[in-house]
Specification:
The protein has 96 residues and is an all-alpha fold. The protein is built from 6 helices and no strands. 61% of the residues lie in helices and 0% in strands. α1 crosses α3, α2 packs across α3 and α2 crosses α4. The protein is globular.
Amino acid sequence: MVRLPLTPGEVERGQRLGALLRRARGARSILETALDAHVSPETLRKIETGRVATPAFPTIAAIADVLGLSLDAVWAEINPPKPHADPTPTRERIAS
């Protein structure tokens, strides 16, 4: 299987995820956290450093659970709101 290169957005999201997990882990060791989440310490290390920018959902769910993070909080942290167009209809949009 050939993996496509990650987009810059995916790389940034992976870096935000890693930073979030490191902050949430605090003084707790990588080893202790990884073992409690049933993932390898190397996997957790790679996620925290951004080397694995798109980890599997069950992996993130297990780590988040161990760290007391809700998946909603993880999602909100790694996917900041995107600027969007004004939802107010304009005359041009109505006319078309």
